[in-house]
């Protein structure tokens, strides 16, 4: 699924054996950016509503931020990371098959 080969950015080489596998890299990226997305949307909610901000509204905005930013960045990692090229997944990723 990596776009690197189609865009001409890939040489087709295997990565080093001590590098993180694609599944772990995607999971960590999604976790980190979900937290950041929740915090970012919390800030946007406070800027948008100002003093009319309520707790359910903040939680709704933070939930939407976490649900959109985390998976979006995980998808970008999957598409553009050299660890997620097919030859590296086949060689190093110990995911469920």
Detail the topology: elements first, then pairings.
Blueprint: H1 4-7, H2 22-49, H3 55-80, H4 86-92
Helix pairs in contact: 2-3
Question: What's this model, at a glance?
Answer:
The chain has 97 residues and is mostly helical.
How would you describe this protein?
- The chain is built from 4 helices and no strands.
- 67% of the residues lie in helices and 0% in strands.
- It has a domain at 41-92.
- It is mostly helical and 97 residues long.
- The two termini are 16 Å apart.
- The protein has helices spanning 4-7, 22-49, 55-80, 86-92.
- The model has no long low-confidence stretch (mean pLDDT 86).
What would the keywords be for this entry?
97 residues, mainly alpha, 0% strand, elongated, DUF7875, membrane
What oligomeric state do these chains adopt? single chain
> How does the overall form come out from the CA principal axes?
elongated
On the 0 to 100 scale, the average pLDDT is 86
Rg calculated over all Cα atoms: 18 Å
Based on helices, strands and strand pairing, what is the structural class? mainly alpha
The helicity comes to 55-70%
Please work out how many helical segments DSSP would assign: 4
């Amino acid at each position: 699924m990596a776009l690197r080969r189609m865009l001409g950015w890939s040489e087709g080489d295997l990565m080093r054996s001590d590098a993180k596998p694609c599944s772990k890299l995607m999971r960590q990226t999604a976790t980190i950016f979900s937290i950041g997305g929740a915090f970012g949307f919390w800030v946007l909610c406070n800027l948008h509503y100002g003093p009319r901000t309520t707790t359910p509204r903040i939680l709704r905005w933070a939930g939407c931020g976490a649900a959109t930013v985390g998976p979006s960045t995980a998808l970008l990692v999957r598409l553009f990371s050299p660890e997620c090229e097919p030859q590296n997944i086949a060689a190093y990723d110990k995911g469920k098959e």
